[in-house]
Structure prediction request, 886 residues.
Amino acid sequence: MTTKHGRFSGWGRHFHRPIFFSLVILTTLGAMSLLSAAIQDDGVTPLELALLILYAILMLWITASFWTAALGFVRILRRMGRRAPADDSARNDQDEGSEPFKTALVMPVYNEDPERVFAGLRAMVQSLVETGRPEGFEIFVLSDTRDPETWIQEELQWRRWALELGQPARLFYRNRVENTARKSGNLADFCRQWGGRYRYMIVLDADSIMTGETLLEMVRRMESDRRVALIQVPPVPVNRSSLFARMLQFAGSLYGNMFVAGLAYWQQDTANFWGHNAIIRVRPFAEHCGLPQLPGHEPFGGEILSHDFVEAALLARSGWKVRLADDLGGSYEEIPPTLIDYAKRDRRWCQGNLQHSRLILARGFKSLSRIHFAMGVMSYLASPLWLLFLIATGIEAYFRSLKVPVYFFGDNVLPVWPESYAVEMATVLWVTLALLFLPKLLSLVLLAFDPVQARRFGGLPKATLSVLIESFFSVLLAPVLMLFQSKFVAAILLRTTVGWPTQERGDHQTGLAEAVGAHGVHTLIAVAAGVATYTYVPAFFWWFTPVLAGLALSIPVSMITSRTALGRLARRAGLFMTPEEAEEPRVLRLLDQHLATPQALPFAASSDRDFWSQSVAAPCAYALHAALLPDETPSRRRRHALEGLIFKLQDEGRDSLGQQEKRTLISHRDGLYELHTLLWAGKEPPMPVARTGNERTVEPLAS
Amino acid sequence: MGARIDSAPALPDGTAMPTKASDWPRAARRLVEYLTALGVRDRQEIDRLGEQVRRRLDARAAHAPLEDAVEAAIEEILALLDDWLTAELDIGGDANALAAARAAVLGGGIPGWSARWAGLAGDSLATEIRAFQRDAVPERAPLTMQASTIDLCCHRLRRRIAAAICRLFCQPDLPTNPRGDRS
Prediction:
C-alpha cells in the first residue's frame, strides 16, 4: 500500500477501525457505568432507564466525535514528525501510455447569484491556467435555475465568458427544462447526455472554490489508482465576515483539520461524499449511482434528497473505493452568514439526512456506509435526544427533590445519612464536557507544535483567546440550534415536507424583527423553563443555567453575531484568524478581483422597470435566449397556454405574472417571440434606447 | 459608421399606408428605436432597412389588414434579419443555426454587419458570424444511467407483516390452498 499523503500503510491499516470502534464503545460503557452508579440508588425506575438509554445514544455520538478528533490529532502529530513529503501536487505523472481524457468541472446551480457563480469559476479556471496545465479540463454549468431573470443573467454571463475563452469551446451551459430530482437529477442528466465525453467530473457547489493545483492533484490521484471512484477533498469555510461566520470559519479551519484526519483514519477506502469539492469517475458513477425513488411518500419516501451519502454508499457497494483526501488543501466553500441562515440550511439538510434512516438496514450496503447513514441521521436526531435528556433529567431531579430524607428508622439509634451521588453526577458532567471540549484543546496543542501554522491563526495566544470566545459562544448557540433542529425533526416526523429554498450566501445582518420572529419562542421557553425549575427544583436550576442563558439571550446573540462590523473588528484584533485570512490564497484573491469588477449588462437596463421584460425586449438577450432554447414545434395546447399568458400580460400587466408563468413564457421560442414583439409594439419602447443627444445608450453584448 | 439617427425614415409620397394613415409614422418611429436597439446606428442603413420593411408591410397589408402596424413592423424587421442571415450563411431551414447566427450578430462584436444587412457593404461576413457563435453544449456523448436497486429491509418486512396479518384476519373465508382447506 502507498504511504503517500499520510495514508497509513501495511498491516497497521487493518487495525484502524477496530481501534476506533473499541475506543468509542469502551468510553461509552465507562460513561454509562458512571451514570448508572449515580442514579441506581434503589433500583432503576422507568424514567432512569430512559435517561440511561438516552445517555448511551448521546455518548456514542459524542465519543465517536471525540475519538475521531483524537485520532486525527495523533495522525497530524505523526505527519508533523515525519519529513514533509515532497510537494508532488504539481507533478502530473499521468500514465504516458494512457489515452487523453477530459475532466469536467461541473457546477450545478439553482437560482444562485450568477455573478458569484461565474466569478468563482473564472477564478478556478485562471488558477488552473496558472499551473500551466489547463488542457483536458472543461467547465459545465448545469443550471436548474427556475427564476427567469437569473436564468437570463446566467446565459449572458456564459456567452461573455465563452467568447473570451475562444475556441475550441471549453465552457458549456445548459438549463434543464424540468428540475426533476433536484441536484442528483441534474448530475444524472449530465451523465446521461454528456457523461461519455469525460473520464472524471469534479463536482462543485455554487460557492465552491478550488485551486488549480488541487484540481490537477485530484486527477493525478484518480489516475494513480483505477479502483478509486471518488475522492472527497474537505472544503474549508472562507470569505464571510460576520462574527458568526468568522467563528465558524475559525472552528472549521482549526478543529476541522483534525476531525477530517480522524475520519480519513477510520473510514479509509469507504469514505463519504459530501456533495461537492470531490472528483468522481464518471462511468462507475453512471453505472451505479442512478438514484431510485424510495417507496412511500415524502418526507421519508420519494426522491432521495441528500444524494451524496447514498451515491458514496452505492459506489462502495459495487466495490469501488471512496476516499477522503485529508491531506489535500486548496478546497474552499462559503458558509451561511448568520445563525438564522445556518438554521435554514439545516432545515433543508435535515429531511434528507433523516430519510437515510430507511437506508441503514437496506440490503447490500457496506457496514461503514450504514454507519455514515446513521451518523447523518444522528447529526440531527441528537438535538431532540438532548432535549429529551434535559427534560428527563429535570423531571428526575424534581422527583428526587420530593423525597424527604428519613434519618432515623428501625432500631437505629444513630442517624442514617442519605447516600450522596453528587461526586458521580459531577464526574458524568465533567466527562461529557471533556469529550466535547478536549478536541479544541488538542487543536491548540497542534498549533503549539507548529509555530508557522500558529502564526497563520493569529499566533498561539490569540488563537487560544479565539478558542475561548468561540467556546463561550458555542455554549450559548448550542441550545438554540438544539431547539431549531428539534423543531425541524418534529416537523418532518409530522410529515411536513420542506421546500428547496435557495441558500442565502452573501453577508447580511439579522434585524430585530427577524431575530424576534426566529428566537422569540426560544426566549419564552427559557423564561418558562427558568421559572419552573427555579420554583420547583432550585438545585437543578443552577445546573441548567448555561442552557437557559443561551435561549434567553438568543435574540441579542443572534443579532450581535450576525454583525459584519464585529467580525471585521475581531479580525483587526487578530481574533478568529484563519490561514486563508492571514495569507489569502491566490484563487481567493482572483475571486475577489472578479467580484470587484462585475460584468456589465450588455444592454442598458432601466432601474424603474423589471429586469425580466427588459431582457426579453433587449435584442441581444432575446436572441441569445432564443438560441439556447430547444427548437420545438409548438403543440396546439401549448400555443393556447402561451396565448393565455400573453393575454394576461396585456390585460393585467407584467406584475400579474408569477415567476413560473414568466418562465413558461420564455421557455419556448414561439412564446418568446410573441413576447418580444409585443413588448416593442407597446406605447413606449420597453427599454432605454440611444438617440442623438440622449445619454441613454444601448451597448453591444461583447463590446 | 455614418450619422446617427434622430428621426424616422422618410416615407415616399403616395405610398399605401400599412393600415391607416396615422399608423406608419408611429411604426416608423418605433422601427428606428428597434433598429437602434439591434445595433444599427447609421442613418443610411436605417433608411434602407426601413424602406424594405415598408415594402414588406405593404405586401402584407395587400393580403389582409394589419392588426397593429408597429407589431407588424417589428415582425418584419426580424424576418428581414432572418432572411439575410439565412442567405449569408446558407442555412436554409435550420432553425437552430439561424437562432445561433442571430445571437452572434445581435450580441455585438461583428463590425459592419448592419451595413452588410442593409445591403451597403459587399463582402460576406459568414466567417465572422460563425466565429462569434458558441455552442452552449458539446455534442452528446450519452451514458446509460439506470436507477440502482435499493432493497429496503424494513419496507419489505412491513409489507410481509401486513400480508401475514391480512392472511390471518382479513380474508378468513378464502381457501388458502387448492384443496380448499382453511388455515
